[in-house]
Structures are given as C-alpha cells and as structure tokens.
Amino acid sequence: MIRSFMPALATLAVLAAGAACAEAQRPLPTGQTVTPLAAKAAVFSPLRTGIGPHSDYVADGAAAMRISPDGRHMLILTSGYNRYNGPDGELLKDQSGQYIFVYDLTVKGAVHRQTLEIPNAFYGVAWRPDSLGFYISGGVDDAVYRFVRGKRGYHQTGKPIALGHSAGNGIDVKPQSAGVAVSPDGRHLLVANYYNDSVSLIDLATAKVTEQDLRPGKIDPGQRGVAGGEYPFDVVWRDARHAYVSAARDREIIALDIDGGAIRVTRRLAVAGEPTTLLIDPVRHRLYATEDNADKLAVIDTSDDRLLQEAAMGFPEQMPEQMPEQVAAGDLGKGVNPNALALLPDGQLLVTFGGINAVAMVDTSGASARVEGLIPTGWYPSAVATRRGRLFVANRKSPPGPNPQGCQPKVAVERAQPTACGASNQYIFQLEKAGLLQAPLPRPAELANLTLKVAENTGLDKHAERARGDAVMAQIHQRIWHVVFIIKENRTYDQVLGDLETGNGDPRLAILGERLTPNHHALARQFVNFDNFMDSGEQSSTGWSWSTAARTTDILEKTAPVNYAGRGLAYESEGTSRNLNTSLPAKARHAANPKASDDDDLLPGPLAITSPDAKDDDLPGQGFLWNAALRAGLSLRNYGFANDMPYDADEPGAAPLARHAFADKATVFTADDRALAGLSDPYYRGFDQKFPDYWNVQEWMREFAEQEADQSVPALTLLRISHDHFGDFDTAIDGVNTVETEMADNDYALGLVIERIAHSTVKDSTLVFVIEDDAQNGADHVSARRSIAYIVGPYVRQHALVSAPYTTINMLRTIEGVLGLKPMGLNDALAVPMADAFDLRQKDWTYTAHASLVLKSTALPIPPQAFVAATVAQTCPLRTAAYWAQAMKGQNFEVEDHLDTTAFNAALWTGLAGATETPARDGKDLSQARTVLLQRPEMQPPCPSGSL
User: Which strand ranges, in their side-by-side order, compose the sheet holding 232-237?
Assistant: First the structure.
C-alpha cells in the first residue's frame, strides 16, 4: 500500500531540529562523536514522517537522495529497519514501510512538502527527465514503483512493474532490486538486480521487461566459473544507448550497450574495492564510483571506457597546521567508507564518508582526485546532494540512548504483557534515526576549520593519549605471550551486572543477575568492572565484524537493517554470502550442503561480500584479527568462529549432537573462512543453542592440555561460547533448556576457561579478553549499546572500577598491543588502548569457577563443590523448558539472530521479570551510594510473578 502525507506549512523536520541536535551531540559507540551543526548556518533535522497513526515517527536508514532535473525538488529514500509496534506489540503495517521524503528546493534550502510510504525499498530512486515523476525500486518486492506529480503532490500511478524473479541466486534467498536509472530520452528504465546478478531493462511505454545476466559464464559458456557481474548495486546512463552498472562483490564496473530491448556487456573494468554508487559527469566525460572496502574513488573516461585512476579517499594529504599528526590518505588504514556522490558545477565532487561521519570536498581537476577538506555530518552519512551553493546530507542513524523498556511485546507470547514491555519500540534499530543536514557550502577558511573538527570527532587529536597507552601496552607485550579472545552473545550491562555493588548499574533491569551469573560477577569484582563499555555493532552481523575487524563495510551497514527487518537479504556476516560458503568451490559447497547449487557460475571464487579488506589492496577479505596475527607469524587456534556446518537435524549433512566429538571422531565444525580452515578444532561445535557451552569448553580444555604439555599454547586463541544467546528449548540436551539454565551454563563455561588458565603453566603469560558481540537483546538505562567486557589475568588491576568510555574498538586496539600487531584499519589506529586496566605490579592471580544453583536441575556433570560458593539467594522461581518452548514458539535459533526480535525480547522479559515496572528513559547515574541503593525495596532485581 502506498501512503502519502503533505504538511500544510513548513517542514516537520525543521520543527524538531532542536531535539535532533541534542541527540546528535552524544558520543558514538565507535568512540567517535558527531557535530552536524559545526558548519555555519547549518540546520540538522530528523526525518519525521508526518504520516500514519503515529505521525511523529522518525524514519531510519536514509539511503539515497536525488534532485529533480529542473532543480526544483529533492527526494530522500529510506532503506532501513523502519518497524513500528502497536500497543499490543504487533507490527503496525501502516507505520512500518519505507519512506520517500519530498522537498521543495528554495533559495533558503529544502522545505519538506510530502511523505510517501511504500512496503519495501533498497537504494534505487530515479527522476524522469521531465521532473514530472520518479521511480523507486521495491527491494524484496522485486518490482518498480511509479510516481507522477498531480495537483496535490506526487502519487503512485499504475501497478508496480514486476521484475519476474521467483528467487535470488543463493540458498533460500529472495530477489532484491537495487539501483534504478532512467535513460536520457525517458524511454527506458534500467534496474540492478542485486541478488540475481543481472540488470532489467523496462520499456516505460509498455512496461515490458528484458533481463540480462551479467555473469561471464552465463553470457559465454567458455567463461564458466569466472567471477563477474555479481551483486550489481547501481546503474547510470551515459546516453540513450550506453549505461554502466557497478558489480560490488566482483569489484568491477560493467559497460553496457543497449539497442532497443537488447543489452550487451561491452567491457568489464576491474577496480580494487567493491564499487557501489555511480555518478556521471556528462560535461567532462567522467564516470565516478565509490569503492567500498578500499576507500577509493574510481574515475573512468566515458569516451573510451578507460579506468583513469583510483584515488585514495580519507583525510586530506595536507591537514591544517593545527593538526600536527601526519594523516596522508590511506596512512591510517581503511574505514572511511565512501558511499555517495554529488557533483558541483565546477566539477568538484562531494563524497560522503560514512565511516568518519563527514562529507568530503574532492578536487578532480588535476591528474589525481584529492580530498580538499571535510565537513562534519550526522552519524553515518549515506546520501548527498547540492543545489545553489547549498549542501544536503542525509545520515542513516543516530546514537540510540538508553532502552530500559528494551523488550517489545507480541501478543503471541502472553495476552497480559508487563508494563515494562508496552509498545516501547526500543529495539536497537528502532532507536537509531535518520536526519537531514542543510548548510551553505563552506569557503576555504571555514573548510579548514571544519576539517579539524572532523579530525577531533574521530580522535585524531588524541595522539598523546595513544602514545601513553601504547607505552603501557609495549611493557605488557614483553610479559604476555598468549591471548585468549572470547566472544559471547547479545547481553547488556544492566541485564547481567546491574545488581553489582559497584558501577552504574540498574538492579531493576538485572534479569540475568548474580543468581544466574556468579562468575560474571566474581570476575567483575576480582578484576575490572568496565561499567561504560559500548558494543560498536548493533547486532550480530555488524557486531561480529566490529568485534573481529574493528570496522564494518558500507555494504554491511546498508544491508544489515534490511535483513533484520525481514525485508529480504541474507545474514551476510561471519564469512557467508547469500547463505553460501564461498571459501569452497561450487562442487565442494554442494557436497557439504546439498541445498547449495553446484552451478559453477554461482558466486565463484572465495570473496565474501561483507568481509573487510586488509590495508593492502591485494588482500581482499583478509582484514580480520586472525589475518593480522597470521601475517605477523603468530600461532593461532580457532574454536567456533566462522562456522559453516549445519546443526539442524533435518538438514542434510548436519553435524551429530556429540558431547564427546573427539572421542567419537565426529566432525562438528567446518570454517567458512579460508584462513581459519586448517586452524580450527573440528570437534568444537559452533553456534548451536541445543548444545551446552559446558561440553564445548571440555573440548577446548582437552586441546589446551595437549598444548600445555607440548609447550605449544597458541599466541591467539579464538573461543566462542554462545549460550547467552538462548534458544532451542524444546530440543536442547542435558536439561540445559531454559533461559535460566542456558545463561548459567554460559556463565559456568566462562568461569571454567578462566579457572583452567589460572591453574596452568602459562597463567603468568596469558591474558583473557571477553566481549559480547552486541547488546541487542536486552534493556539498559544508559545505552542500548552498553555491554559487559572483561580483561582477566596477570598485570590486570584487581578490585577496580573503570568508567572510561571504552568500546569494542578499544578492546581490539588493546589486544593488538598485547600481541605486537599493527592496527588493522582506521578505527583501531585512532583508538586508545585500555591501558588503565593494567598494573605492572599485579602479576599474581588465581580464579576458581562457581556454578549457579539453577544448574543443579540439569544433567551436566558439575562437581558438588562448584555450587558451594553461591553468594546470592536463589529466590526467583524458575520457568520450565515447556514454558520457554511455548513462549519462543516459531523462533529460528539455528543461525545467529534469525529471530523475531520483538517477540524474543518480550518473552525474555516476561519470563524473567514478570510485571516489574522499569524506570523512565533518563540515563541517570546510579553509581553512587550503591550499598544503600541496592537495599531499597523498589530497586531489587526483578523476578517473574505468578505460578509457573
């Protein structure tokens, strides 16, 4: 259904500018800050829809911006999460589409005139040459929507033009249309079919659709198995006969010849990065393309389709004198994420840098394009335009703030929902909003000052702090030979440590408090309680990239919200693309998983679409921590990272549910990352909520004993323990089949790892780092991104509270310092190590694991003495496996985050907290007078009410 809104007077966005700007001043969970009002006369406004039953709704995921050919109007298209729950927790379809914001362009700027709503969209928007209408690609709807201008604004005309795909290319994926472009004569529309590796040509007079596969092997059988044409993202026309399409995964820009209804590929131009946005300069005969993953700008001569250059994008080579540190483009590593383009009348370009929250002014007049200066924007700019000397920039998201009502209800869970859930709409993607920045284009003197502001916002000016931290880490590096890096799942600080006697925790939100997590609490007490630690990723797909590479690619930023909203696309993180293990050849993929096609032309080659590149351009997809360690010559062992083996018993080739996989010689793990394939324990199970972490840790301890005996403990151990994700309550083994027992299992497994190392021969040379990949499935009174983190071992401060605003990136910078590794990219290069967590005098340490009493109900062989040290009364009643199976009915726990998150979080809160009220969304500091605060009746941790 298409819905429209036209404000009577001024733009609703401007009316809410004050609130948006206050939100925009908050620090980001990446360690950066945003200052969208830094430019003179800048105005920053949220994309308030003014449409639907909740007209104050602000959209997220601004994806594209287009000014009409006559220069009178501007469109902003969203392609984000945009899901809104009603009072009963059910999705409000009238408030849960994607949005088209229509602006009039005046001498004073852009004035919002109309909002249109469509079911789905993914990047594609194009004006008609006569400015009387426009076209939107419908994303997973596999269609194109048509709009025309009438007396009261724009409205849909005719039925959507169907593109005719029944599925996308991959395993269990749907089609996904992306970029669209209208030919200069207005006769044809070209569509990039992102998941079908093709383009569709639409005759706009007849709506006839002609499709051309872009893969070499489908065009010429002699090219079978040759990579090319996959993940086409954007399209542009050079003239009525010629066009270009960017093929992101295969890193090529394809020239097309279009004769009537026939499409012919005439040239493939290889580029270093993943090309996304395309822009034609018809006057200078140039085609520009942003290159994701390489931080470059491709420049092509359209007169002969020749690649002229790939200019580095980043900070200007010549920074203002006030910034003494050398920051030549590319020196800091990758991560600026160029993603949108606009052309100035003099031929200069505007290029948005999503990774550093800025728009660059790029001079293209010389032999090589170069960045002249930077302008601060909102968080993650993704669209840009210019008109009459003014700048327009739209950003994808905003700082989320606290989410104490972070459990969205669904009627299917229980009819009577607790007040704490309500219709809060506080899921992480629902809290991050899009905005529009308007400002006059700065003059050179102002541009220099704005460039300095961007440098400050990214932490470039913290050279002294980094130097001090690096000095500490250099000393730690001389003492520590082994790092164990543990990644867990999805918990907030308040959920777990809100009841701790130190730190800024809210005990009312501690539904997974000390009764379930004695080891999490003991470690926070014995070592350092980081009560202001933020996870850089929203959820697991982005969270795993941040946790293992200190950055995300732009394509992942574009696609993750769409996937999590159920708007198509696959979970493309941790090594897979369209649910395929691209590290294997096609035939081997099919042998490992019969659902995978054996078609040699289906994503040939090892590239994974969202895997970050290393600093060197000849190392695509090798930008992870393990790649850096291996290049440095360090030994490494992987336990559970990047798994491709199916665990659903109904799936062909599923791994057996083996507690003693080594003894049974049962392979239960295969890596989908080539670098990890020969370095992974095949007997350590990956993500599987049916399987207790306890048994996985037993397998790690088996190998650790061998390593200890052989003096071959690896320099870097990657260890995944994931039962704090929860799930599979009806099929989980050993009675570890409730939220309570699964959380306690995860807690005890963590404690066992620490205990084993504490009593080993390498205890004095080993540090353990623990992190949650994200904090999406819980409430927190400070931030929806705040989570738990630990550093454990020798030289770590004991009984300490550290409230520094650390993030995932700071932890990775610290691990790099311990191992003697160089930063992997821009973000960790600019991060400060967590040096205040260490004390070089504190060498002695030990630890003994404790088991929560709730594990007594399971069949895990836990020794009785492990239960002795319980420090909190187990007063809360326990739900049963049958209860949780019913409450979570319909959820998919087979793969990370394939959940109806709204229903999941609602059920979690209902089952663990009952009808307990939660505080207002105020972010108050609760760190003072904790002893008194914890004794107050109204501050007690929640328990479910009623009979079980």
Answer: 232-237, 242-247, 252-259, 262-270
